[in-house]
UniProtKB/TrEMBL annotation:
Domain of life: Bacteria
Signal peptide annotation: none
This protein's UniProt keywords: Oxidoreductase
GO molecular function, one term: flavin adenine dinucleotide binding
InterPro entries tied to this protein: Auxin_biosynth/cation_transpt (IPR050982), FAD/NAD-bd_sf (IPR036188), NTF2-like_dom_sf (IPR032710)
Gene3D superfamilies: 3.10.450.50, FAD/NAD(P)-binding domain (3.50.50.60)
Listed name of the protein: FAD-dependent oxidoreductase
Length: 592
């Protein structure tokens, strides 16, 4: 017999919640929440990406937004859980401007966490399914314009003086996915990219690069990878997919185009953007400007005393593509996170003698272990159980960042126990291993700092076997003409030094293109404000400045891995579309 108790309990709670909101009785609303409660809202109430922690924060948000949001039609769509575990209902709702979807959890009859998301704007829905375009106007017409003719006209118009509503700087995965979302919402958009073709940002990386995340986690909007696609995507295959995607989604994508400068006119609410397209100057005046230059900004070089006297070659990992010419050479890779490991393996495969200089501990987790323990909602089994990528994304978003550490620590306790022998062998080489300042592992490092971790796809065994040398925990004193001397007096010979030392914040790109003042006003991108190393407080509860309004009007940041770019591209696009249509988008912010 099908158990309807969870759905009935969920519906009863949601009915009380809806009734108290409709009456504006916030005191009664708060009584429905547990003392330790969280409400994460993505655009629906706040026109922001924001998590309210505790009853006081929820009350302040509702006082500021309830009248303008006018939520209604709350309905439970499904519910899971039972007597021994929290009840997790999914629900739909309406706002003054659109349709929403969310998830909440009930513990002892009260709400512990709530997620609300705006999914569509009324009257401006995507043309999908039953509402898709016809693609043809039947009947004879001497003035007919074919699809290819209309497409060519649209493409030519932007280069001939017409201005897009939105300009996206950066044509990698983040810019492409956002461009696709905006296209489906009817927002005139141009994507500009320095490389000649879509996908080149992947093709130009080192030859052995393969995605470390599985295919089920990496789908793009609208066009998922086909069923035969490999679990881990090689970088050139990814580049070809992005190039195909741009064509199929009919995006206005300008390769060989560099953004020189951008200036905002507050009175006109419009940007003046100077471009160089194919070597020729061009000016566009979009309303909205998006920086989609990756999760991070320009390469970060560390100072190396004695560099001017070094007779070899010094590169940043972003400049490295192929180790073939370094066969038989002595290579030193400074940095022991993802790119440091990957570049070291590529050099080893090319026949170089490789030493990795590790300046601080690294969180390492074996790919096989992650696949088994950490990707339960992104897997073939999940798909078979009816959990598609959009469902998995919302499930992940339903846990606020403040509650993630405990879950991640429990996961990494299992990982450390499972792979204890592996970690013992790695430590025995002198490799500095950690799992974060609070033992919460890779994901929390990724959110907090975007650095200091590696998903092991082969480098660790080379380190264990002594094929890749390790010099850990000792400061570099100076470069010599033929290598590196360390503070302990030891030296390593080197023909090549590669700095795998990470990247600066995305706001440094704004400093270069807009101004230093605007960049400083916006502040650092990424990080949660957790107070951990390289992620100073105060606590934000969401990624700094990503996917939401920032201190500079009409400027946005879109980036991150494929999964984050996919999920948040929807909400960045909805925010931009709402502004194009003149909807009231009062952003709810609270002092930090």
């Amino acid at each position: 017999m099908h158990d309807t108790a969870p759905a009935a309990a969920a519906a009863a709670w949601l009915a009380m919640f809806s009734d108290t909101l409709a009456k504006g009785d916030l005191a009664a609303t708060l009584e429905l929440f547990a003392e330790d409660c969280y409400w994460r809202d993505i655009v629906a109430f706040t026109w922001n990406v924001k998590t309210m922690e505790g009853k006081a924060a929820i009350a302040a948000m509702l006082e500021a937004t309830l009248e303008s949001t006018q939520p209604s039609s709350w309905q439970v769509t499904s519910a899971t859980g039972g007597p021994s575990e929290p009840l997790q209902p999914w629900f739909s709702f309406k706002t003054k401007v659109g349709q929403g979807q969310g998830i909440f959890t009930l513990e002892d009859g009260r709400c512990r966490t709530m997620l609300t998301t705006l999914q569509a704007l009324d009257g401006h829905e995507e043309a999908l399914g039953f509402s898709r375009a016809m693609g043809v106007r039947h009947g004879a017409d001497r003035n007919r314009e074919t699809w290819s003719e209309a497409r060519a006209r649209d493409e030519a118009s932007f280069g001939a003086g017409a201005d897009p509503y939105c300009l996206i700087i950066g044509g990698g995965q983040g810019g492409i996915m956002l461009g696709a979302r905006l296209k489906q919402l009817g927002v005139p958009t141009v994507i500009v990219e320095k490389n000649p073709k879509a996908g080149d940002s992947w093709r130009n990386r080192y030859r052995s690069l393969v995605l470390h995340d599985p295919v089920w986690y990496d789908h793009l909007p609208y066009i998922p990878f086909p069923a035969h696609w490999p679990v881990f995507t090689p970088k050139d295959k990814m580049g070809d997919w992005l190039e195909m995607y741009v064509k199929v989604m009919e995006l206005s994508y300008w390769g060989c185009t560099e953004c020189i400068s951008a200036k905002f006119d507050a009175a006109e609410q419009r940007w003046t953007v100077e471009l160089k397209r194919g070597g020729k100057p061009l000016t566009l005046r979009p309303k909205q400007l998006v920086f989609a230059t990756g999760a991070y900004g320009p390469p970060k070089f560390i100072p190396l005393p004695g560099a001017t006297g070094f007779k070899g070659e010094i590169l940043h990992s972003s400049q490295y593509s192929d180790g073939t010419k370094y066969q038989g050479k002595k290579a030193v890779v400074i940095g022991a996170a993802s790119s440091g490991h990957d570049v070291s393996v590529d050099l080893w495969e090319a026949g170089a003698e490789v030493t990795m200089v590790q300046r601080s501990p690294t969180t390492v987790v074996r790919s096989e272990t992650l696949m088994e323990l950490a990707f339960d909602t992104y897997s073939e089994a999940a798909v078979a159980a009816g959990i598609d990528v959009d469902t998995a994304d919302l499930l992940g978003a339903a846990t606020p960042f403040a509650l993630q550490p405990a879950k991640q620590k429990a996961l990494y306790d299992k990982i450390r126990a499972r792979d204890a022998a592996f970690y013992d062998k790695l430590r025995a080489t002198g490799f500095l291993l950690d799992f974060g300042p609070d033992e919460t592992g890779l994901m929390m490092k990724a959110y907090r700092t975007g650095s200091g971790y590696y998903v092991d796809v082969g480098a660790s065994q080379l380190i264990i076997d002594g094929e890749i040398g390790i010099k850990a925990g000792v400061e570099i004193e100076t470069l010599t003409p033929t290598g590196i001397r360390f503070a302990d007096g030891s030296e390593i010979a080197a023909d090549l030094i590669i700095q795998s030392t990470g990247f600066q914040s995305m706001h440094e790109v704004v400093a270069k293109i807009v101004s230093r003042e605007v960049a400083d006003e916006i502040g650092t991108c990424w990080g949660l404000g957790s107070g951990t190393r390289n992620d100073p407080g105060p606590w934000h509860g969401e990624l700094r400045n990503m996917y939401k309004p920032v201190a500079q009007e009409n400027l946005w940041f879109q980036g991150g891995n494929l999964a984050l770019s996919r999920f948040f591209s929807k909400f960045v696009a909805l925010q931009i579309k709402a502004r194009m249509e003149g909807l009231d988008t009062v952003v709810y912010r609270t002092p930090l």
